[in-house]
UniProtKB/TrEMBL annotation:
Residues 418-445 form a coiled coil. Pfam families: Carboxyl_trans (PF01039). GO terms for cellular component: acetyl-CoA carboxylase complex. It comes from Lachnoanaerobaculum orale. This is Carboxyl transferase. Keywords: Coiled coil, Transferase. Residues 1-233 form the CoA carboxyltransferase N-terminal domain. SUPFAM superfamilies: ClpP/crotonase. Residues 202-474 form the CoA carboxyltransferase C-terminal domain. GO terms for molecular function: propionyl-CoA carboxylase activity; transferase activity. It comes from the Bacteria.
Protein backbone atom coordinates (compact mmCIF):
# COMPACT_ATOMS: atom_id res chain seq x y z
CA UNK A 1 0.00 0.00 0.00
CA UNK A 2 1.24 3.51 -0.83
CA UNK A 3 2.62 5.50 2.07
CA UNK A 4 0.14 8.11 3.27
CA UNK A 5 0.93 11.78 2.85
CA UNK A 6 3.85 11.49 0.44
CA UNK A 7 2.18 12.51 -2.83
CA UNK A 8 -0.24 15.15 -1.49
CA UNK A 9 2.55 16.93 0.41
CA UNK A 10 4.94 16.66 -2.54
CA UNK A 11 2.38 18.41 -4.74
CA UNK A 12 1.75 21.13 -2.16
CA UNK A 13 5.46 21.80 -1.68
CA UNK A 14 6.12 21.98 -5.42
CA UNK A 15 3.19 24.32 -5.99
CA UNK A 16 3.65 26.82 -3.16
CA UNK A 17 6.49 29.17 -2.35
CA UNK A 18 9.20 27.30 -0.44
CA UNK A 19 8.36 26.90 3.24
CA UNK A 20 5.11 28.86 3.03
CA UNK A 21 2.60 26.05 3.66
CA UNK A 22 0.76 26.11 6.99
CA UNK A 23 -1.40 23.07 7.65
CA UNK A 24 -4.83 23.33 9.27
CA UNK A 25 -6.76 20.44 10.83
CA UNK A 26 -3.88 17.99 10.87
CA UNK A 27 -5.36 15.93 13.73
CA UNK A 28 -8.76 15.39 12.15
CA UNK A 29 -9.69 11.81 11.21
CA UNK A 30 -12.88 9.89 10.42
CA UNK A 31 -15.37 9.66 13.29
CA UNK A 32 -17.73 7.15 11.69
CA UNK A 33 -17.67 3.66 13.29
CA UNK A 34 -19.81 1.68 10.81
CA UNK A 35 -18.27 -1.21 8.86
CA UNK A 36 -15.33 -1.33 11.33
CA UNK A 37 -14.14 2.06 10.09
CA UNK A 38 -12.94 2.84 13.61
CA UNK A 39 -10.31 0.10 13.21
CA UNK A 40 -8.89 1.68 10.07
CA UNK A 41 -6.24 4.37 10.19
CA UNK A 42 -7.50 7.54 8.46
CA UNK A 43 -4.83 10.19 9.04
CA UNK A 44 -6.11 13.68 8.27
CA UNK A 45 -9.20 11.86 6.93
CA UNK A 46 -7.50 11.65 3.54
CA UNK A 47 -6.96 15.34 2.80
CA UNK A 48 -4.28 17.91 3.66
CA UNK A 49 -5.68 21.41 4.11
CA UNK A 50 -4.01 24.72 4.79
CA UNK A 51 -2.73 27.95 3.30
CA UNK A 52 0.46 29.33 1.77
CA UNK A 53 1.66 31.66 -0.92
CA UNK A 54 2.33 31.65 -4.66
CA UNK A 55 4.67 34.47 -5.62
CA UNK A 56 3.84 35.94 -2.21
CA UNK A 57 0.07 35.87 -2.92
CA UNK A 58 -2.11 34.17 -0.31
CA UNK A 59 -3.88 30.98 -1.46
CA UNK A 60 -5.79 28.23 0.33
CA UNK A 61 -5.11 24.67 -0.71
CA UNK A 62 -6.35 21.13 -0.14
CA UNK A 63 -4.63 18.02 -1.46
CA UNK A 64 -6.37 14.64 -1.35
CA UNK A 65 -4.53 11.49 -0.30
CA UNK A 66 -5.47 8.42 -2.37
CA UNK A 67 -3.55 6.25 0.11
CA UNK A 68 -6.29 6.87 2.71
CA UNK A 69 -9.47 5.03 1.70
CA UNK A 70 -8.80 5.94 -1.95
CA UNK A 71 -9.03 9.65 -1.15
CA UNK A 72 -12.80 9.17 -0.81
CA UNK A 73 -14.88 11.96 0.66
CA UNK A 74 -16.49 11.42 4.02
CA UNK A 75 -17.95 13.71 6.66
CA UNK A 76 -14.72 15.02 8.21
CA UNK A 77 -12.86 15.13 4.89
CA UNK A 78 -15.53 17.46 3.53
CA UNK A 79 -15.67 19.48 6.76
CA UNK A 80 -11.99 20.34 6.34
CA UNK A 81 -12.52 21.54 2.75
CA UNK A 82 -15.63 23.56 3.67
CA UNK A 83 -13.76 25.21 6.57
CA UNK A 84 -11.02 26.15 4.12
CA UNK A 85 -13.61 27.80 1.87
CA UNK A 86 -15.02 29.73 4.84
CA UNK A 87 -11.59 31.21 5.58
CA UNK A 88 -10.92 31.95 1.91
CA UNK A 89 -14.19 33.86 1.66
CA UNK A 90 -13.36 35.91 4.77
CA UNK A 91 -9.89 36.85 3.55
CA UNK A 92 -10.60 37.03 -0.20
CA UNK A 93 -8.09 34.53 -1.54
CA UNK A 94 -8.27 31.74 -4.17
CA UNK A 95 -8.91 28.09 -3.30
CA UNK A 96 -6.85 25.40 -5.05
CA UNK A 97 -7.88 21.74 -4.90
CA UNK A 98 -5.43 18.97 -5.81
CA UNK A 99 -7.77 16.09 -6.62
CA UNK A 100 -7.16 12.35 -6.25
CA UNK A 101 -10.52 11.04 -5.13
CA UNK A 102 -12.45 7.79 -5.60
CA UNK A 103 -15.69 9.63 -4.88
CA UNK A 104 -18.22 9.06 -2.13
CA UNK A 105 -17.05 7.09 0.96
CA UNK A 106 -19.48 4.18 0.99
CA UNK A 107 -18.89 3.32 4.66
CA UNK A 108 -20.34 6.67 5.72
CA UNK A 109 -23.55 6.60 3.66
CA UNK A 110 -25.75 9.65 4.39
CA UNK A 111 -22.98 11.49 6.23
CA UNK A 112 -20.76 11.21 3.16
CA UNK A 113 -23.63 12.20 0.87
CA UNK A 114 -24.32 15.29 2.96
CA UNK A 115 -20.59 16.02 2.93
CA UNK A 116 -20.59 16.26 -0.85
CA UNK A 117 -23.56 18.61 -0.68
CA UNK A 118 -21.74 20.86 1.79
CA UNK A 119 -18.79 21.15 -0.60
CA UNK A 120 -21.15 22.00 -3.47
CA UNK A 121 -22.80 24.69 -1.34
CA UNK A 122 -19.44 26.21 -0.40
CA UNK A 123 -18.32 26.26 -4.03
CA UNK A 124 -21.57 27.86 -5.14
CA UNK A 125 -21.30 30.56 -2.48
CA UNK A 126 -17.71 31.27 -3.53
CA UNK A 127 -18.46 31.39 -7.26
CA UNK A 128 -17.70 34.85 -8.64
CA UNK A 129 -16.16 35.95 -5.33
CA UNK A 130 -12.85 34.08 -5.24
CA UNK A 131 -11.14 32.09 -8.03
CA UNK A 132 -11.56 28.31 -7.68
CA UNK A 133 -8.95 26.09 -9.30
CA UNK A 134 -8.78 22.30 -9.30
CA UNK A 135 -6.14 19.92 -10.65
CA UNK A 136 -6.97 16.24 -11.15
CA UNK A 137 -4.00 13.91 -10.70
CA UNK A 138 -5.74 10.57 -10.19
CA UNK A 139 -9.43 9.73 -9.97
CA UNK A 140 -12.22 12.29 -9.88
CA UNK A 141 -15.24 10.04 -9.85
CA UNK A 142 -18.97 10.42 -9.34
CA UNK A 143 -19.90 13.54 -7.41
CA UNK A 144 -16.33 14.82 -7.48
CA UNK A 145 -16.70 15.39 -11.22
CA UNK A 146 -19.51 17.84 -10.42
CA UNK A 147 -17.16 19.63 -8.04
CA UNK A 148 -14.77 19.99 -10.99
CA UNK A 149 -17.62 21.55 -12.95
CA UNK A 150 -18.29 24.08 -10.18
CA UNK A 151 -14.68 25.30 -10.32
CA UNK A 152 -13.49 28.15 -12.53
CA UNK A 153 -10.48 26.34 -14.01
CA UNK A 154 -9.61 22.65 -14.06
CA UNK A 155 -6.24 21.09 -14.84
CA UNK A 156 -5.91 17.36 -15.61
CA UNK A 157 -2.90 15.06 -15.70
CA UNK A 158 -2.74 13.75 -19.26
CA UNK A 159 -1.96 10.05 -18.70
CA UNK A 160 -3.17 8.73 -15.35
CA UNK A 161 -6.02 11.05 -14.34
CA UNK A 162 -9.63 9.99 -14.86
CA UNK A 163 -12.76 12.15 -14.57
CA UNK A 164 -16.20 10.55 -14.78
CA UNK A 165 -19.69 10.67 -13.34
CA UNK A 166 -20.40 7.13 -14.53
CA UNK A 167 -17.39 4.94 -15.24
CA UNK A 168 -17.05 4.12 -18.98
CA UNK A 169 -17.46 0.44 -18.04
CA UNK A 170 -20.80 1.21 -16.37
CA UNK A 171 -22.34 2.60 -19.56
CA UNK A 172 -24.34 0.12 -21.66
CA UNK A 173 -22.46 -1.37 -24.62
CA UNK A 174 -19.32 0.54 -23.74
CA UNK A 175 -16.03 -0.04 -22.00
CA UNK A 176 -12.93 1.95 -21.26
CA UNK A 177 -11.22 0.19 -24.17
CA UNK A 178 -13.92 1.29 -26.63
CA UNK A 179 -14.60 4.85 -25.52
CA UNK A 180 -12.64 6.21 -22.60
CA UNK A 181 -14.95 9.04 -21.60
CA UNK A 182 -12.88 9.52 -18.46
CA UNK A 183 -9.60 10.39 -20.21
CA UNK A 184 -7.96 13.81 -20.33
CA UNK A 185 -8.25 13.78 -24.12
CA UNK A 186 -12.03 13.28 -24.03
CA UNK A 187 -12.66 15.64 -21.13
CA UNK A 188 -10.64 18.45 -22.73
CA UNK A 189 -11.80 17.98 -26.35
CA UNK A 190 -15.44 16.91 -26.02
CA UNK A 191 -16.89 18.12 -22.72
CA UNK A 192 -15.22 21.52 -22.14
CA UNK A 193 -14.76 20.55 -18.47
CA UNK A 194 -10.95 20.64 -18.57
CA UNK A 195 -9.07 23.86 -19.31
CA UNK A 196 -5.48 22.61 -19.29
CA UNK A 197 -3.78 19.21 -19.57
CA UNK A 198 -0.17 18.19 -19.03
CA UNK A 199 2.14 16.15 -16.84
CA UNK A 200 2.24 16.72 -13.09
CA UNK A 201 5.06 19.26 -13.17
CA UNK A 202 3.44 21.22 -16.05
CA UNK A 203 0.15 21.36 -14.16
CA UNK A 204 1.68 22.73 -10.98
CA UNK A 205 3.65 25.29 -12.99
CA UNK A 206 0.46 26.17 -14.88
CA UNK A 207 -1.44 26.82 -11.65
CA UNK A 208 1.29 29.19 -10.49
CA UNK A 209 1.06 31.07 -13.80
CA UNK A 210 -2.74 31.26 -13.63
CA UNK A 211 -2.63 32.63 -10.08
CA UNK A 212 -0.15 35.29 -11.24
CA UNK A 213 -2.60 36.78 -13.76
CA UNK A 214 -5.86 36.48 -11.81
CA UNK A 215 -7.18 38.89 -9.19
CA UNK A 216 -7.30 37.51 -5.65
CA UNK A 217 -11.05 38.10 -5.48
CA UNK A 218 -13.84 40.09 -7.12
CA UNK A 219 -12.97 43.33 -5.31
CA UNK A 220 -9.19 43.38 -4.97
CA UNK A 221 -7.04 43.22 -8.12
CA UNK A 222 -3.54 41.92 -7.39
CA UNK A 223 -2.87 40.80 -10.97
CA UNK A 224 -1.15 43.98 -12.21
CA UNK A 225 2.56 43.89 -13.06
CA UNK A 226 4.92 46.54 -14.40
CA UNK A 227 4.84 46.79 -18.21
CA UNK A 228 8.26 46.74 -19.86
CA UNK A 229 6.94 46.76 -23.43
CA UNK A 230 6.56 49.82 -25.68
CA UNK A 231 3.01 51.14 -25.28
CA UNK A 232 3.19 52.53 -28.83
CA UNK A 233 4.71 49.43 -30.44
CA UNK A 234 3.44 49.04 -34.02
CA UNK A 235 2.09 45.67 -35.15
CA UNK A 236 2.20 45.34 -38.96
CA UNK A 237 2.83 41.58 -38.63
CA UNK A 238 -0.71 41.13 -37.30
CA UNK A 239 -2.23 40.94 -40.79
CA UNK A 240 -0.38 37.71 -41.62
CA UNK A 241 -1.29 36.15 -38.28
CA UNK A 242 -4.88 37.21 -37.70
CA UNK A 243 -6.44 33.93 -38.84
CA UNK A 244 -5.09 32.35 -35.65
CA UNK A 245 -5.99 34.57 -32.69
CA UNK A 246 -3.52 32.68 -30.47
CA UNK A 247 -0.75 34.21 -32.57
CA UNK A 248 -2.45 37.58 -33.03
CA UNK A 249 -3.23 38.02 -29.34
CA UNK A 250 0.42 37.40 -28.44
CA UNK A 251 1.49 40.16 -30.83
CA UNK A 252 -0.95 42.61 -29.23
CA UNK A 253 0.01 41.62 -25.68
CA UNK A 254 2.75 43.11 -23.51
CA UNK A 255 6.02 41.28 -24.21
CA UNK A 256 4.04 38.74 -26.29
CA UNK A 257 2.44 37.13 -23.21
CA UNK A 258 -0.49 34.72 -23.72
CA UNK A 259 -2.34 32.07 -21.72
CA UNK A 260 -4.94 30.23 -23.82
CA UNK A 261 -7.89 28.63 -22.03
CA UNK A 262 -9.70 25.46 -23.20
CA UNK A 263 -7.40 25.29 -26.24
CA UNK A 264 -8.48 21.71 -27.08
CA UNK A 265 -12.23 22.41 -27.10
CA UNK A 266 -14.17 24.21 -29.88
CA UNK A 267 -11.00 25.35 -31.62
CA UNK A 268 -13.04 27.62 -33.91
CA UNK A 269 -13.39 29.96 -30.90
CA UNK A 270 -10.38 31.33 -29.02
CA UNK A 271 -10.40 32.30 -25.34
CA UNK A 272 -7.39 33.38 -23.33
CA UNK A 273 -5.60 36.02 -21.28
CA UNK A 274 -3.09 38.68 -22.35
CA UNK A 275 -1.60 41.71 -20.63
CA UNK A 276 -1.98 45.33 -21.73
CA UNK A 277 0.08 47.93 -19.87
CA UNK A 278 0.53 45.36 -17.11
CA UNK A 279 -3.19 44.61 -16.66
CA UNK A 280 -4.82 41.24 -17.34
CA UNK A 281 -7.27 41.32 -20.27
CA UNK A 282 -9.50 38.49 -21.46
CA UNK A 283 -9.62 37.83 -25.21
CA UNK A 284 -12.42 36.18 -27.20
CA UNK A 285 -11.97 35.67 -30.95
CA UNK A 286 -13.30 33.78 -33.96
CA UNK A 287 -10.63 31.50 -35.41
CA UNK A 288 -10.08 30.75 -39.10
CA UNK A 289 -6.89 28.69 -38.76
CA UNK A 290 -4.67 26.92 -36.28
CA UNK A 291 -0.94 27.51 -36.80
CA UNK A 292 1.98 25.46 -35.52
CA UNK A 293 5.12 26.93 -33.99
CA UNK A 294 6.60 27.52 -37.46
CA UNK A 295 3.50 29.38 -38.69
CA UNK A 296 2.31 26.49 -40.84
CA UNK A 297 -1.44 25.85 -41.01
CA UNK A 298 -2.48 22.74 -39.07
CA UNK A 299 -6.24 23.16 -39.39
CA UNK A 300 -8.68 25.57 -41.03
CA UNK A 301 -12.16 26.65 -39.93
CA UNK A 302 -15.07 28.46 -41.53
CA UNK A 303 -15.60 31.81 -39.84
CA UNK A 304 -19.01 30.80 -38.50
CA UNK A 305 -20.39 30.54 -34.99
CA UNK A 306 -20.83 27.01 -33.58
CA UNK A 307 -22.80 26.12 -30.48
CA UNK A 308 -19.66 24.74 -28.81
CA UNK A 309 -17.76 27.93 -29.57
CA UNK A 310 -20.59 30.11 -28.29
CA UNK A 311 -20.80 28.16 -25.02
CA UNK A 312 -17.03 28.29 -24.56
CA UNK A 313 -16.94 32.05 -25.08
CA UNK A 314 -19.97 32.72 -22.84
CA UNK A 315 -18.45 30.86 -19.90
CA UNK A 316 -15.17 32.75 -20.28
CA UNK A 317 -16.94 36.12 -20.54
CA UNK A 318 -18.95 35.41 -17.38
CA UNK A 319 -15.76 34.62 -15.47
CA UNK A 320 -14.01 37.78 -16.66
CA UNK A 321 -17.01 39.93 -15.80
CA UNK A 322 -17.30 38.40 -12.31
CA UNK A 323 -13.68 39.28 -11.55
CA UNK A 324 -13.58 42.67 -13.30
CA UNK A 325 -11.23 41.56 -16.07
CA UNK A 326 -11.64 43.73 -19.22
CA UNK A 327 -12.63 42.00 -22.47
CA UNK A 328 -11.14 42.33 -25.95
CA UNK A 329 -13.02 40.71 -28.85
CA UNK A 330 -11.51 40.03 -32.28
CA UNK A 331 -14.43 39.62 -34.68
CA UNK A 332 -14.42 37.58 -37.90
CA UNK A 333 -17.79 35.88 -38.36
CA UNK A 334 -20.22 35.63 -41.26
CA UNK A 335 -23.01 33.48 -39.83
CA UNK A 336 -23.84 30.28 -37.97
CA UNK A 337 -22.54 26.80 -38.67
CA UNK A 338 -25.06 25.02 -40.91
CA UNK A 339 -25.37 21.50 -39.50
CA UNK A 340 -28.24 19.56 -37.98
CA UNK A 341 -26.47 19.34 -34.61
CA UNK A 342 -25.75 23.07 -34.53
CA UNK A 343 -29.30 23.92 -35.56
CA UNK A 344 -30.57 22.04 -32.52
CA UNK A 345 -28.36 23.96 -30.11
CA UNK A 346 -27.35 27.32 -31.58
CA UNK A 347 -30.51 29.26 -30.59
CA UNK A 348 -29.75 28.69 -26.90
CA UNK A 349 -25.96 28.79 -27.22
CA UNK A 350 -26.01 31.93 -29.35
CA UNK A 351 -28.43 33.56 -26.93
CA UNK A 352 -26.15 32.58 -24.03
CA UNK A 353 -23.21 34.27 -25.74
CA UNK A 354 -25.25 37.37 -26.51
CA UNK A 355 -26.52 37.53 -22.93
CA UNK A 356 -23.01 37.16 -21.50
CA UNK A 357 -21.70 40.12 -23.50
CA UNK A 358 -24.76 42.30 -22.97
CA UNK A 359 -24.79 41.56 -19.24
CA UNK A 360 -21.06 42.17 -18.70
CA UNK A 361 -20.22 45.56 -17.17
CA UNK A 362 -16.42 45.42 -17.49
CA UNK A 363 -14.64 47.50 -20.17
CA UNK A 364 -15.45 45.89 -23.55
CA UNK A 365 -13.51 46.64 -26.73
CA UNK A 366 -14.05 44.99 -30.13
CA UNK A 367 -11.88 44.92 -33.23
CA UNK A 368 -13.40 43.73 -36.53
CA UNK A 369 -10.53 42.07 -38.38
CA UNK A 370 -12.46 40.29 -41.15
CA UNK A 371 -16.19 39.74 -41.54
CA UNK A 372 -18.94 41.02 -39.27
CA UNK A 373 -21.96 39.77 -41.15
CA UNK A 374 -25.53 39.17 -40.00
CA UNK A 375 -26.97 38.45 -36.57
CA UNK A 376 -24.02 36.25 -35.61
CA UNK A 377 -21.86 39.38 -35.59
CA UNK A 378 -24.24 41.05 -33.14
CA UNK A 379 -23.45 38.33 -30.60
CA UNK A 380 -19.70 39.04 -30.81
CA UNK A 381 -19.70 42.16 -28.62
CA UNK A 382 -21.26 44.53 -31.13
CA UNK A 383 -22.07 48.15 -30.39
CA UNK A 384 -25.74 47.14 -30.33
CA UNK A 385 -25.35 44.94 -27.23
CA UNK A 386 -23.06 47.23 -25.27
CA UNK A 387 -19.50 47.30 -26.59
CA UNK A 388 -17.78 50.42 -25.25
CA UNK A 389 -15.48 50.83 -28.25
CA UNK A 390 -15.60 49.15 -31.66
CA UNK A 391 -12.69 49.42 -34.09
CA UNK A 392 -12.39 47.94 -37.58
CA UNK A 393 -9.50 47.33 -39.91
CA UNK A 394 -9.65 49.09 -43.27
CA UNK A 395 -10.29 45.87 -45.23
CA UNK A 396 -13.00 44.54 -42.88
CA UNK A 397 -16.51 43.81 -44.14
CA UNK A 398 -19.73 44.53 -42.30
CA UNK A 399 -23.33 44.05 -43.27
CA UNK A 400 -26.62 42.28 -42.90
CA UNK A 401 -25.61 39.32 -45.05
CA UNK A 402 -23.20 38.20 -47.75
CA UNK A 403 -23.40 40.74 -50.57
CA UNK A 404 -23.92 38.28 -53.45
CA UNK A 405 -26.67 36.46 -51.56
CA UNK A 406 -28.40 39.75 -50.74
CA UNK A 407 -28.23 40.80 -54.39
CA UNK A 408 -29.84 37.55 -55.57
CA UNK A 409 -32.78 38.24 -53.28
CA UNK A 410 -33.13 41.99 -53.88
CA UNK A 411 -32.64 41.91 -57.67
CA UNK A 412 -34.09 38.50 -58.54
CA UNK A 413 -36.41 39.87 -61.26
CA UNK A 414 -33.68 42.03 -62.81
CA UNK A 415 -31.25 39.08 -62.80
CA UNK A 416 -33.81 36.78 -64.45
CA UNK A 417 -34.49 39.36 -67.18
CA UNK A 418 -30.81 40.05 -67.83
CA UNK A 419 -28.95 38.68 -70.87
CA UNK A 420 -25.89 38.14 -68.69
CA UNK A 421 -27.02 37.11 -65.19
CA UNK A 422 -23.47 36.61 -63.93
CA UNK A 423 -22.37 40.11 -64.95
CA UNK A 424 -25.50 41.61 -63.39
CA UNK A 425 -24.88 39.81 -60.10
CA UNK A 426 -21.25 40.93 -60.06
CA UNK A 427 -22.20 44.55 -60.78
CA UNK A 428 -24.93 44.66 -58.13
CA UNK A 429 -22.67 42.86 -55.62
CA UNK A 430 -19.96 45.53 -55.98
CA UNK A 431 -22.60 48.23 -55.61
CA UNK A 432 -24.04 46.58 -52.48
CA UNK A 433 -20.60 46.06 -50.92
CA UNK A 434 -19.63 49.69 -51.46
CA UNK A 435 -22.89 50.92 -50.00
CA UNK A 436 -23.96 48.58 -47.21
CA UNK A 437 -21.16 46.06 -46.60
CA UNK A 438 -18.61 48.77 -45.93
CA UNK A 439 -16.98 49.63 -42.60
CA UNK A 440 -17.04 53.26 -43.73
CA UNK A 441 -20.84 53.06 -44.02
CA UNK A 442 -21.00 51.43 -40.56
CA UNK A 443 -18.73 54.11 -39.10
CA UNK A 444 -20.92 56.87 -40.56
CA UNK A 445 -23.89 55.33 -38.75
CA UNK A 446 -21.98 55.07 -35.46
CA UNK A 447 -21.69 51.28 -35.34
CA UNK A 448 -17.88 51.55 -35.59
CA UNK A 449 -16.00 54.14 -33.55
CA UNK A 450 -12.92 54.27 -35.75
CA UNK A 451 -11.26 52.56 -38.71
CA UNK A 452 -7.65 51.81 -37.83
CA UNK A 453 -4.57 50.44 -39.55
CA UNK A 454 -3.16 47.02 -38.75
CA UNK A 455 0.10 48.60 -37.56
CA UNK A 456 -1.69 50.81 -35.01
CA UNK A 457 -3.75 47.98 -33.51
CA UNK A 458 -1.88 47.47 -30.23
CA UNK A 459 -1.56 51.12 -29.30
CA UNK A 460 -5.19 51.95 -30.19
CA UNK A 461 -6.60 49.02 -28.23
CA UNK A 462 -4.33 49.74 -25.28
CA UNK A 463 -5.34 53.40 -25.30
CA UNK A 464 -9.03 52.43 -25.34
CA UNK A 465 -8.65 50.24 -22.27
CA UNK A 466 -6.67 52.96 -20.50
CA UNK A 467 -9.54 55.38 -21.20
CA UNK A 468 -12.06 52.82 -19.87
CA UNK A 469 -10.01 52.01 -16.76
CA UNK A 470 -12.37 53.91 -14.45
CA UNK A 471 -15.55 52.71 -16.16
CA UNK A 472 -18.49 52.21 -13.80
CA UNK A 473 -21.69 50.59 -15.04
CA UNK A 474 -24.47 48.86 -13.14
CA UNK A 475 -27.26 46.71 -14.51
CA UNK A 476 -30.82 47.20 -13.20
CA UNK A 477 -31.32 45.76 -9.73
CA UNK A 478 -32.37 42.11 -9.82
CA UNK A 479 -31.66 38.96 -7.84
CA UNK A 480 -30.02 37.48 -10.96
CA UNK A 481 -30.85 36.94 -14.61
CA UNK A 482 -33.14 34.05 -15.51
CA UNK A 483 -31.11 32.87 -18.50
Amino acid sequence: MAQTGVLPMKRIEELLDTGSFVEIGSYISARNTDFNLSHKDTPKDGVYTGYGTIDSKLVYIYSQDAAVLGGSIGEMHAKKIVSLYDMAMKTGAPVIGLIDCAGLRLEESFDALDAFGQIYAAQTKASGVIPQIQAVFGLSGGGMALSNGLSDFVFMEQDKARVFVNSPNAIDNNSQDKNDYSSAKFQSEATALIDFIGNESEILSGIRELISILPANNEDDMSYIECNDDLNRVTPELEASIKDPAVAAKIISDSFYLLEVKKNFAKDMFTGFIRLNGNTVGVVANRRALFDEKGETLQEFDNVLSHQGADKAAEFINFCDAFNIPLLTLVDVKGYRATKCTEKRIPKAGARLTYAYANATVPKVSLIVGDAIGSASLSMNSKSIGADMVFAWENAKMGMMNASEAVKIMYSEEIDASDDAVATIEEKTREYENLQNSVVYAARRGYVDDIITVADTRKRILAAFEMLFTKKEENPYKKHGSF
